[in-house]
Amino acid sequence: MVWGAIGYEGKSELVVLEGRRTSHHYIWTVSEHMLPFAHQHYGTDFVFMQDNAPIHASYETTDFFKEIGVTLLAWSARSPDLNPIENVWALLADKAYRHGKQYHSVPALTVAVMKA
């Protein structure tokens, strides 16, 4: 899995994550990658948008955000996916797989994604 964040000031680094993700893993990813990006560009005045994936909506995760004072954008369970990062992922996939390119290993795909 590849993880990243975007904002009106730019984008975070892309992070390759291996294995099954839990709330604990997600909190680590947010702490190590999203928060430094957000604090660098927005200080503490920002709203974080995420979908309702179980690891995003868990009590552990929502309690974490409350404890550190990050405002989460309310996300209706039955709303269409309006998260702009989905458009970024589509563009990234389009670049990586342009002209029908196929990859025969995870490392080769990882390199292509990072270049895209």
From TrEMBL:
<protein>
    <submittedName>
        <fullName>Unnamed protein product</fullName>
    </submittedName>
</protein>
<dbReference type="GO" id="GO:0003676">
    <property type="term" value="F:nucleic acid binding"/>
</dbReference>
<dbReference type="InterPro" id="IPR038717">
    <property type="entry name" value="Tc1-like_DDE_dom"/>
</dbReference>
<feature type="domain" description="Tc1-like transposase DDE">
    <location>
        <begin position="2"/>
        <end position="98"/>
    </location>
</feature>
<dbReference type="InterPro" id="IPR036397">
    <property type="entry name" value="RNaseH_sf"/>
</dbReference>
<dbReference type="Pfam" id="PF13358">
    <property type="entry name" value="DDE_3"/>
</dbReference>
